[in-house]
Amino acid sequence: MSGTTPTGEQEPAGAAAPVVDPRLLVRERGMAGYVEEFRRKIRGGELGAIPVVVGLIIIAVVFQSLTGTFLTPGNLSNITVYIAGPGLMAVGIVLVLLLGEIDLSVGSMAGLSAAIWAVLSVGQGVNDLLAIVLAIAAGAVVGTIHGFFFAKIGVPAFVVTLAGFLGWSGLQIWIMGSEGTINIPRDSLVRDFNNFYFSDIAAAYGLALVITLGYAAALWTGERRRAAAKLPNRQMVDLAVRIGLVAVAAFTVAYVLNQHRGLPLALVIFLAVLIAADFMVRRTSYGRQIFAVGGNAEAARRAGINVVRVRLTVFTIASSLAALGGLFWAAQAGGASKSLGSGNLLMNVIAAAVIGGTSLFGGRGWIWSALLGTLVIQSITTGLNLLGMASEIQYMITGAVLLIAVVVDSVSRRTQRTAGRT
Amino acid sequence: MTTAPLLALRGVSKRFGAVQALSDIDLEIHAGRVTALVGDNGAGKSTLVKTIAGVYTADAGTIEWKGRAHRIARPQDSQDLGIATVYQDLALCDNLDVVANLYLGRETRSLGVLDEVAMEARCRELLDSLSIRIPSVRIPVASLSGGQRQVVAIARALIGEPEVVVLDEPTAALGVEQTAQVLDLVELLRRRGLAVVLISHNMADVRAVADEVAVLRLGRNNGIFPVAETSHEEIVAAITGAADNAVTRRSARTLTKDGAAPSTDAAADDDRNRTTEAGEETA
Ligand SMILES: Nc1ncnc2c1ncn2[C@@H]1O[C@H](COP(=O)(O)OP(=O)(O)OP(=O)(O)O)[C@@H](O)[C@H]1O
Ligand SMILES: [Mg+2]
């Protein structure tokens, strides 16, 4: 939506009553116009992804200069594997935050899911894939229970999921029974979540190409249709810059990954979920309904939206994603345990969603904040690990980053208010 | 009024805790006619509108659509019948842009995917016809002025091709030109054969477009007047309750004595009973 400021000449000539206000600041053509519009957006508090991207660059520069090994392909490749688990969980949190709610149980759910999978697959000898499906289904059931109490009964989501936070980790410990930990067997699919790489260099480059072409095609056809319908559309330069940025990012990542072990399966699954969720949120009625309920639930109800159903299903999706993320988390830990998913996982996941640019106040945000936010958190964690810092320092730094993100969210909300935007 | 009503309310009551917001309301809405609903602040106009729209469910009474009783339990039910409502509080989602608000709950889709281009084109067309200037249809409605928001809410009611359009104070925030546009629109809708319910505190507007005026006073019917044959003073009298006279007072008193007082909350009782019959007798 950004950058679609209509320019004067694109208005249908001779229309009886132009919809466009003549006072609207019209973007000049060419580079100067973009710079000017960019400035205006910053002042208006529409920061978009800029703070996170700048933050990531700062983090990379700082840790590289301190350790000298942060920007090695091996380290960067590992980061892309580590972010999958918390990232998948963060996608669910983004959806919940868009509703203007919170889910405090995702960490416990992740641990519970890993426990269910491990006990079924390793303990009971159930088929590995079936055990994975059952673990995710357990997530769906848990989310539906949360959604039922929140959406149907009207208990605040904060309280319902706080109860879940305790209750599900209790269930996790109970399920694990006498076993302290259950290690992942060699031939398990869950191990591949951490260990499998498409080592052929064609895989990473191919994926980068597919992503770039897909993005270009979607953008191009969209703008063509807008032009055909005589709606304001982006200029060619604009399209070229956007596609160029995506291409550079995709191929750089592919190049780095191929310097190490190739394309990790974890990253492929994470990206697939991100793209699917982004599509759902921005291109389907259901996604529109999520934003509407998060913005003004009563208005959504009056528009005929089934608010209860939207709320309930979002919690179902969030817990299912937490269950899936839990399996990745277990893969990294090497197995399921009684304490898997406790500690700072929950805070990191929520922090990631907010750091990435999804508002805590509901109705504002985007799915890609799950990727950007987890990248920030994981980069900090990895960097501090390289420096040999103890986990208490990591806690403090992550806490500070979360605070900064929330402050940015609150301030940008206030600036947008004064600049006339919500 | 020889034709059967499109929408009819029979004995509709609604109570909020200790407040009897509506008691025993009767109202008939006819296709091709504009019915103005007037009354003082707190008379129950918006409550009545929300009952029709399915935001509230009536405690008692029935709502008939084309002669058949229907239960309107949810806003969808009302929309499915063909009733479009512009609420006094507009009920817009501030975080969504104009196009998204206009199509909320009934997005245009192609192959299951939102068809933003079709929606935006239609949205611009509609806003053009309402001659309102909006900086862009792609900005969140939070950044629009009060009047612009109101026009967006009105435009939204027209998207779904309704048979009844209910407008709760649609011109309250509008300038001279936009008010005229909305009144023109009301007349256009009537000419197209739609039924319009218009709530307004502006008697001049009401007299300009309405065919009949239904007066609500303290949550009760206080008369239905054909605009052409009723003077301004008579309507104002019905609104304020000044139409009260000795005859109605006496009939009210006998009613109370018989124990047929319809309202149970004692405090407001006296005033309400007095005005019960006033309207009908004036009319
Ligand atoms: N949700 C509610 N809960 C409790 N009381 C309510 C509620 N909505 C309305 N009321 C009460 O019902 C009565 C009628 O209110 P309503 O909003 O229908 O008035 P109105 O005729 O639309 O007034 P106005 O001209 O000021 O818009 C008022 O006394 C009001 O306090
Ligand atoms: Mg009102």
Structure description:
- The complex is a heterodimer of chains A (422) and B (283).
- With 422 residues, chain A is mainly α.
- Helices cover 71% and strands 2% of the residues of chain A.
- Chain A is built from 17 helices and 4 strands.
- In chain A, helix 3 (73-82) crosses helix 10 (236-259) and helix 4 (84-98) runs antiparallel to helix 14 (307-333).
- Residues 1-20 of chain A have low confidence and may be disordered.
- Chain B has a domain at 7-95 and 161-243: Rossmann fold (3-Layer(aba) Sandwich).
- Helix content of chain B is 38%, strand content 23%.
- The longest helix of chain B has 16 residues, at 176-191.
- Classes of the chains: A mainly alpha (422), B alpha/beta (283).
- Bound molecules: adenosine-5'-triphosphate and magnesium ion (MG).
- Adenosine-5'-triphosphate (ATP) binds at residues 16, 19, 21, 39, 41-47, 88 of chain B.
Key features?
heterodimer; A: 422 residues; mainly alpha; ABC transporter involved in vitamin B12 uptake, BtuC; two-stranded antiparallel sheet; two-stranded antiparallel ribbon; 17 helices; 4 strands; B: 283 residues; alpha/beta; Rossmann fold; six-stranded mixed β-sheet; four-stranded antiparallel β-sheet; 11 helices; 12 strands; 38% helix; 23% strand; globular; disordered C terminus; binds adenosine-5'-triphosphate; binds magnesium ion
